[in-house]
Amino acid sequence: MTVTDVPIATPSPVLAAARRRGRGLAPVLPALALIVVVFVIPVLALLLRSVLEPEPGLQNYAAFFASTTYLKVLGNTFLVAGTVTVATVLLGFPVAWFLAIAPSFWSRLLFAIVILSMWTNLLARTYAWMVLLQRTGIINRTLMEIGLISEPLPLINNLVGVTIGMTYIMLPFMILPLHATIRSIDPAIFQAASLCGASRFQAFTRVMLPLTASGIAAGALMVFVMSLGYFITPALLGGTSNMMLAELIAQLVQSLLDWGLAGAAALVLLVITLAIYMVQLRFFGFGQARG
């Protein structure tokens, strides 16, 4: 038998596919390792402390749900996150629509303003709102000068100030996905709707909203989840009676050194966030994948 007669073993298709997948995952392995080290392991350590400190058991969770104060903080968190999400949808949709249909110059200018607002330091933006919303701020002074109010409105150290500040900060995260979705819609669809006799309101409710539902869902999910865990803006613009869950966790760790109860509160927030994400994925993500 000659050398040319020796059969050459070829790898099976399954093995070849596994090797290709391995080569495809190689570039992201450093990023995955970083996420595991700086996020997954610390989160797991905190969650373990919720059932191990001060002694093994679920007493921290029992204490959390038995306290009306903690439940009020949880309610405030969802109230603010929901209000901010609704406000960003109502304000972000017209802006995203204008960005999609405006002339190139105005579209680029407004888009640059939106992006620059994201690049500005978060603490600086929050302090700017503290100046604007205080009793002697420009908003109250302007309203009093034009005669709309006779005394300053309480716009800070309450849920109103937190909602205003967080809506401003979260607005770009709603505008960007909505803008991308609206830009992908063929304008001929609206012309066809008009030729079929649809009014502007019907074209908006039956054509525009269904086509932009995925962008609205993506932006709303991002804003709501980020709002649930926000800390700096609520701490500076809110008051102690309107504390949010992230502030409570920070106080439990930094002031009371109660890592067990802080871990329980963090797990509650994490589970709720994952549940909301799964609901959004069920009604929008999977549906898009099937389409």
From TrEMBL:
The keyword Membrane applies. Coiled coil: none annotated. The keyword Transit peptide does not apply. Keywords: Cell membrane, Membrane, Transmembrane, Transmembrane helix, Transport. The chain crosses the membrane at residues 28-48, 78-102, 109-133, 153-176, 207-232, 252-279. It is a multi-pass membrane protein. It comes from the Bacteria. Belongs to the binding-protein-dependent transport system permease family. CysTW subfamily. This is Putative spermidine/putrescine transport system permease protein. It comes from Ancylobacter rudongensis. The lineage of its organism: Bacteria, Pseudomonadati, Pseudomonadota, Alphaproteobacteria, Hyphomicrobiales.
